[in-house]
Amino acid sequence: MADKRRNIISQRATNIPPSGIRRFFDLSAGVPGIISLGVGEPDYVTPWHISEAAISSIKKGYTMYTSNYGLLELRQELSRHLNHRYKIDYDPKSEIIVTSGASEALDIAMRAVIDPGDEVIVGDPTYVAYIPCIIMPGGVPVTVPTTMDNDFELKASEIEKRITPKTKAVLLGNPNNPTGAVIEKDELLKIAKLVEKNDLAVISDEIYDRLVYDGEHTCFASLPGMKARTITCGGFSKSYAMTGWRVGYVAAIPNVIEAMMKVHQYIMMCAPIMSQIGAIEALKNGEDSVVEMVDDYNRRRRVIVNGLNDIGLECHMPKGAFYAFPSIKSTGLTSDEFAEKLLLEDHVVVVPGSVFGECGDGHIRCCYAVALPDIEEALKRIDRFVKKHSG
Amino acid sequence: MKNILKALEDDARTTPEKIATMTDKSVDEVKTVIAQAEKDGTIVRYKTVVNWAKAGEQEVDAIIEVKVQPQKNVGFEAIAEEIYRFPEVRSAYLASGTYDLALLVAGKTMQDIAAFVTNKLSPIDGVQGTATHFLMKRYKEDGVIYDDRGGIHRLTVTS
Predict the structure, then answer these.
(1) Which of A239, A270, A285 is the last residue of a domain?
(2) pLDDT digits (tens, 9 = 90+) for B90-109
(3) Which residue in B has a C-alpha nearest to residue A302's C-alpha?
(4) Domain containing A304: what range?
(5) Is A1 part of a structural domain of the chain?
(6) Would you say domain B60-137 falls under CATH 3.30.70.920?
(7) Chain B hits for A22, Cβ within 8 Å
(8) CB contact under 8 A, A303 and B3
(9) Nearest 5°: CA angle at B82, between B78 and B85?
(10) I need a labelling partner for A321 at 20 to 30 A (CA). Which of A219, A276, B62, B74 fits?
(11) Burial label, A247 (beta-carbon count in 10 A; 0-12, 13-18, 19+)
(12) Residue segments in chain B with a per-residue pLDDT below the cut of 50
């Protein structure tokens, strides 16, 4: 009998491009002795005092829902933290929601801001979830190319060229995954001017805010006039090595928070209470650990970038996050071919730049949140691989 | 300076060239800082942490609490030195609390350590009493957790 079932998959779900990263995950399974530079998370485990705070809270019986907004103490700590670091005032009672990671923060921000047909401007290459998060509520992503010539910094002048009457928002990933680019304050001020002039919203994903090595991170919402237009997304995953905890936040003015709250309360209710308690401990007593980890990433950053350049893979010095994004154009391979052959022949996992957008092709993403001996061994293998495939 | 020392503390074999890359300094600058730190005792020595049990070598360790009678003018110093000069004493500390000196003592067998306590430590003038605790399992030493992270695996590729 013929199968008469209709296809139950929605057009919207069909339209979401699958992540190119999954293929490499499958490819790497079962390859022995691989070294992975393919991850997007710290190699540290969560500092013990943070884990201990959460364990102890579970023992005491903190196992229930929290306020949809999140624990007030955590919102107060976040407010204090953002004020201390970026001189910006967010009211803990009406301007912050604790989310299940910055991923959820990004999702509820998009859903609160985008109507079907609205255009959202975003840099290319860009974090893999940005474009799907724009598409899901019916938005139209408009990409702005960035290149190695200017360290992949997103330029206001390039944004301006793509503003149309349909443009609703600009999505910033700053610092950027996969390029490690940090948008300098001068450039952010120019973007702020455009935002003001064209009456736009800004979704600013600042999950890597603490991982900035040269210079200082600028919180977009702290720029003059920008708080009212900006949704700041952040979290604990990268700074405090808490990826598995799924705890982050959004900060915005009260009416925007209320719009996001409607989405958040129906899809998530609240972030896990034990993770929120861990996050409080992180903000109260985690600064030393952050500094220690950032110093360590910084040392590894210089080793990997110098190593890649020595191999002949031209690589700019990324100013933030924990990724090197070298060009592999000298090998004549596409980034997909390079990554697949490198994995199968010399057992190093990297992520092809093409999964992050058109401008990522010709590059690979190498995470350096990896133990130094492994980085050194990976560099040896990449050197061998490049020699084999050039000339 | 701190970054250079941190790199060496993590791995004493890190070359000055590598440290120069890591810290964005010149090789000469790194060499000068290390030489100075070696000279002034900031770098005490370079050491390898060995898991002797894994190498098939038997070693028995004990923590020994020692109660001593401090001496006029020199306090604990003279008697502490008399004790820590023994090669069996790996580490020695003056401690607050119910006893005075805390020793970490190593031997090949329990008998070795028992002999050390009976024949060498206890007879010293001024030693009033000892309490020996044999160590049964090593979980962590010098900041390194032994057999750590068994079973914890990161995914190989994540976004």
Answers:
(1) A285
(2) 999 999 999 999 999 999 99
(3) B22
(4) 11-46+288-389
(5) no
(6) yes
(7) 157
(8) no
(9) 125
(10) A276
(11) buried
(12) none
